[in-house]
Amino acid sequence: MGVVTRDVCTPAGQTDAQIISRMHGDPALFDTIFDRYYPAIHGYASRRLGRDLADDVAAETFLVAFDHWRRYDTTQHSARPWLFGIASNLIAGHQRTEARRYRALARAEQAGAADRDSIDGAADRIAVRLDAQALRGRLAAALEELAPADREVVLLVAWADLTCEDVARALEVPAGTVRSRLHRARRRLRAALGGADPTATGEDSE
User: Fold this and answer.
1) DSSP codes, 84-153
2) How many structural domains compose the chain?
3) In terms of residue numbers, what domain contains 85?
4) pLDDT value for 138
């Protein structure tokens, strides 16, 4: 008796929307979404809150996403903005921790390298893509001073590599609102940093 085979459509090369659409028949396909985006979500949460809380935030992001995958708008090919939106909502519940982290990093920069090594994440070890060794010194202090909504936008653009349109999807606000918040955040950061703009990236740079 011959072996019966069936065609298997593997997730490789498929968009996130295509994978999520197929989850109606095979929910385990969500593993592919997890594998694609867990490192990015965890890295973003770590930069915002530190490594310990990042574990919890990243795990909960994907638990929430799995619980709500049936609501996903499959006209959107990439799930990246959706997932970062979930992560942002969870991070928002840790605003005090984030503020303390910025203050600690700012103090550590002033205190010198020896003291910096005692801070969670140690400024020189944080994996950042901003210029001028982001989250150090004046930049950390300036980020703390931003309104939470403005800080959310500028960090999603600078650290999560989202466009303004992606951020609008992630936060469920108009793109014009995102651009207004981004402009305001960058103006205040430049004022605090003597004209420097370490958050300017690609098409969204001012």
Assistant:
1) HHHHHHHHHTTHHHHHHHHHHHHHHHHH-HHHHTTSTT-GGGS---STTTSSSHHHHHHHHHS-HHHHHH
2) 1
3) 16-201
4) 76
